[in-house]
Amino acid sequence: MHNPGPRHVAIIMDGNGRWAKKRFMPRFAGHKAGVEAVRDIVKACAERKVEVLTLFAFSSENWRRPEEEVSLLMKLFMSALDREVKRLHKNGVRLRIIGDLSAFPEKLQQQIHQSHQLTKDNSLLQLNIAANYGGRWDIVQASKKMAQAAVDGEISVDDIDEQLLESHLSLAGLPEPDLFIRTGGEERISNFLLWQLAYTEFFFTKTLWPDFNVKLFDEAIDSFKSRQRRFGRTGEQVEVEQDA
Ligand code: IPE
Ligand code: IPE
Ligand code: MG
Q1: Letter string b/e over residues 46-76, b meaning 16 or more CB atoms within 10 A of that residue's CB
Q2: Which of 173, 171, 168 is closest to 142 using CA atoms?
Q3: Domain range spanning residue 83?
Q4: Residue 52 backbone phi and psi in degrees, to 5
Q5: Active site residue 191
Q6: CB of 210 closer than 6 A to ligand 1?
Q7: Which one of the ligands is nearest to 182 CA?
Q8: What are the pLDDT digits (tens) for 133-166?
Q9: pLDDT (tens digit, 9 = 90+) per residue, 87-115?
Q10: Domain for residue 98, yes or no?
Q11: Digit-coded pLDDT (tens) for 13-62
Q12: Atom 6 (ligand 1) nearest CA
């Protein structure tokens, strides 16, 4: 084994619709079943001392889906938030919803704000839920903030570097994801965390998200632990450092 366990795991929870279709159920039933899997994985992360878990719940492109599915997804999101936040808080989880929240109904925005406030001092696990999130949006909104700071004379253009840009991204200050998991069989990023995945280890599984479980999660973690992360260096250099 090369690596200790991941500090930050990022997951694209894909395959809910196909899970439902296989059972001759409406797509929405798959989304509902997916919430159960989220609960199990959050618990598993806390037990395995993962510090940060970032889940992709709704992409900025998912608005393109039929109106009925989008509106059912909003309702599910609101009711899950309502139901789960107290329990998460009790278990020491700090919750953050990342994405362009301005597109959400006012009531949902308030609910999100309250959940942030309630859990802000917790430190067992940081749970980020990406909703109306897009990796490109994240980089653009960070760039706008830097441009505004330059216009206002707070920074000069030469102050702009990777560190400054990072400090304006949605996951500012958190370690970059060590392990990325995508369920559902597709092997693509679908505009998830573009900047932050630069050196992340990828794990793809055909298992559909509602069927994802702790056993598979441990398989992903074991796969991660067995890999050598080189960050541009040679394997030999890394081995020397690990022995030191
Ligand atoms: C992922 O499952 C959940 C969301 C995108 C909201 P999908 O709904 O994409 O499921 P498939 O890919 O159609 O099976
Ligand atoms: C990515 O899944 C977004 C979420 C899981 C929330 P999609 O199912 O929307 O991705 P594509 O469209 O197949 O790439
Ligand atoms: Mg999908």
Answers
A1: beeebbbbbbbbbbbebeeeeeeeeebbeeb
A2: 168
A3: 8-133+176-243
A4: -135, 135
A5: no
A6: no
A7: 2
A8: 999 999 999 999 999 999 999 999 999 999 999 9
A9: 999 999 999 999 999 999 999 999 999 99
A10: yes
A11: 999 999 999 999 999 999 999 999 999 999 999 999 999 999 999 999 99
A12: 58
- Give the C-alpha separation, 146 to 150, whole Å: 6
Task: Tell me if 8 sits within 8 A of 177, measured CB to CB.
Answer: yes
141 in any annotated domain = no
The mean pLDDT value of the chain amounts to 97
Judge whether residue 119 has pLDDT over 80: yes
Give the residue carrying structure tokens 């030191």.
244
- Bridge partners (DSSP) of residue 111 are none
Q: What is the number of the ligand 1 atom nearest to the C-alpha of 57?
A: 6
Contact 206, 185 (CB under 8 A): yes
Catalytic residue check, 14: yes
> What amino acid is encoded at 106 in this protein?
E
Q: What pLDDT does residue 61 have?
A: 97
| Beta strands across the sheet bearing 179-182 | 93-98, 125-133, 52-59, 8-12, 179-182, 201-204
Number of domains in the chain: 1
Report yes or no on 142 lying in a domain: no
pTM over 0.85: yes
Is 115 part of any domain?
A: yes
Tell me what pLDDT residue 123 has. 97
Among the options 62, 91, 122, 213, which is catalytic? Answer: 62
- Calpha distance 76→35 (Å, rounded): 9
8 A C-beta contact, residue 44 and residue 214: yes
The CA 15 to ligand 1 mean position distance, Å, reads 5
**Span from the CA of 243 to the centroid of ligand 3 (angstroms):** 43
* CATH number for position 92: 3.40.1180.10
